[in-house]
Specification:
The protein is an alpha/beta fold. The protein is built from 12 helices and 14 strands. The chain binds P-hydroxybenzoic acid.
C-alpha cells in the first residue's frame, strides 16, 4: 500500500515537474513544429513568419527572456507526430511548443503536451478534441475549432435559401468536423445535406467526385480544403464546368493564401473565416504593412494565427516573468486577456479557444473581401472539456 502511494506521488511529481531546470536569465526555447513540406508547407511558413514578427516587435524577447528556436518539419504526417514532439521535449528540452497545421498531428501533440505538462500553443489545427476532451491548463489555441467556420457558413448558406447541399472534403478530423459544424447550422436553418463526399488526405484526384456532384445537382456545395489541395480543387471545380452552375461555399481556408495560384477561378467565391484581406482597421493595417516589409509577402490567416500565438504566449509569460513552470498563473492571465489581434480583438474561452467574429468574405479582384459578419462572437462549445 505504502509503495503504491509513493509510486503514485512520484509519478505525479514527474508529470508536473518542469522538463528541465530554468536558470534565471536563460533563453526561452521555442519548438516550432510545423509543416515545411507537402500540401500545407506555405501555411507552416506563414505561421512561423507571423510568430517571429511579433517576437521581433517585442525586441526579440517574451516574458523578459531571449528566444531560441528549434524547428522540426512535421510533414503533416500523424504517424510521425509523437516521435517528433517527444524529440522536441526530451532531446531539445524546449519550454514551449508552437504547432501545428494538421489536426491529426495536433491531436498527437496535445496528448504528449498534456502528459508532460509542456506548454503548447496551437496556431492553426482546428481539431475539436484539442480544446474538447483533450483540453488542459497548458494547451492553448490562437486559431479556431473546425466547428467554427463550418457552423458560420452553415448559417449563411441556409439564410441564402439553399435547401439541398452536397459536402466535399478530405477524410480526416478537420474535414469531418468542418462538415459537421456546417451541417449543424445548415439543418437548424431548414436545409438538408444530400450527400457527404470525401477523399483521403492529401489526395487531389477530384474528378470522379466532381462528376458525382454534377449528376446530384444540389443547390450548392460546401467544402473544406486548404493549402495546395484548395488551389487544385477550386481550379478543377471551374474546369469541370461547375462554377457558375452550382454555387461553391467553403470554410475560408479554401481561398486564403491561395488566391494568386487560383486566379480567376476563385473570383466571386463566398467563404467564412475569422480574418479577411480588407478589414482596414489601424491594427490590421499596421500588421499588414510590417509583415509585407519584413517578408515581401502579403499576410494571410495563418500569418495572423502565428502572430497571435506569440501574443498569447507573451500575455502568459509576462504575468510570470518568463517562468514557464507556473502553468496556473499563465492560464489565468491568458483567460482574462483581450488579445489585440489583426483579425479584431478576441478573448479566450474557458477551453482555451478564441471567441471571435467570423467574416463572410467574397473573392473580389484577387482579395478575400469582408462583406459582413457571418457569425458574431462565435464560441466553440468545447464539448467534452473538463479542466
Ligand atoms: C486542420 O487540419 O485542422 C486544418 C488544416 C488546414 C487548414 C485548416 C485546418 O487551413
Amino acid at each position: 500500500m505504502k509503495t503504491t502511494l509513493l509510486a503514485v506521488a512520484a509519478a505525479a511529481t514527474l508529470a508536473f515537474a518542469p522538463a528541465h531546470a530554468q536558470a534565471p536569465g536563460s533563453k526561452l526555447k521555442v519548438g516550432l513544429m510545423l509543416p515545411a513540406t507537402g500540401t500545407f508547407a506555405a501555411l507552416g511558413n506563414a505561421i512561423e513568419n507571423g510568430f517571429k514578427l511579433y517576437v521581433t516587435e517585442q525586441g526579440g524577447k517574451l516574458g523578459g527572456r531571449d528566444i531560441e528556436y528549434v524547428k522540426v518539419d512535421d510533414e503533416s504526417d500523424p504517424a510521425k507526430a509523437t516521435d517528433n514532439v517527444n524529440k522536441l521535449i526530451k532531446r531539445d528540452n524546449v519550454d514551449v511548443i508552437v504547432g501545428t497545421v494538421h489536426s491529426g498531428v495536433a491531436m498527437a501533440m496535445a496528448k504528449v503536451a498534456k502528459d508532460t505538462g509542456t506548454l503548447l500553443m496551437v496556431p492553426n489545427a482546428g481539431a475539436d478534441a484539442v480544446t474538447g476532451p483533450m483540453c488542459a491548463q497548458n494547451i492553448f489555441r490562437s486559431s479556431f475549432t473546425n466547428y467554427q467556420p463550418g457552423y458560420a457558413m452553415g448559417e449563411v448558406v441556409a439564410k441564402k435559401g439553399h435547401k439541398n447541399v452536397v459536402t466535399i472534403t478530405w477524410k480526416y478530423a478537420a474535414g469531418d468536423e468542418s462538415v459537421k459544424g456546417f451541417k449543424e447550422a445548415f439543418e437548424k436553418g431548414g436545409g438538408k445535406v444530400l450527400k457527404d463526399l470525401s477523399l483521403p488526405f492529401p489526395g487531389v484526384e477530384f474528378q470522379a467526385l466532381l462528376t458525382e456532384i454534377a449528376s446530384l445537382k444540389p443547390d450548392a456545395v460546401y467544402t473544406f480544403f486548404a493549402g495546395g489541395g484548395a488551389v487544385k480543387f477550386v481550379k478543377d471545380y471551374a474546369a469541370a464546368g461547375l462554377k457558375g452552375k452550382i454555387p461553391l461555399y467553403g470554410a475560408g481556408f479554401l481561398t486564403d493564401g491561395t488566391l494568386e495560384a487560383q486566379g480567376a477561378d476563385a473570383e466571386g467565391l463566398f467563404t467564412a473565416l475569422h480574418y479577411a484581406d480588407s478589414l482596414n482597421t489601424p491594427r490590421d493595417n499596421a500588421f499588414r504593412l510590417a509583415y509585407a516589409k519584413t517578408y515581401k509577402l502579403q499576410p494571410d490567416v495563418y500569418a495572423v494565427q502565428g502572430y497571435d500565438a506569440a501574443q498569447m504566449l507573451a500575455v502568459g509569460l509576462n504575468a510570470v516573468k518568463g517562468d514557464t513552470t507556473k502553468k496556473a498563473e499563465i492560464a489565468a492571465a491568458i483567460r482574462k486577456a483581450k488579445i489585440d489581434s489583426p483579425r479584431g480583438a478576441f478573448t479566450v474561452s474557458a477551453n482555451h479557444n478564441p471567441v471571435q467574429d467570423f467574416y463572410l468574405r467574397q473573392v473580389v479582384k484577387g482579395e478575400n473581401k469582408s462583406v459582413g459578419i457571418a457569425s458574431k462572437a462565435l464560441v466553440d462549445p468545447g464539448r467534452g472539456c473538463k479542466m
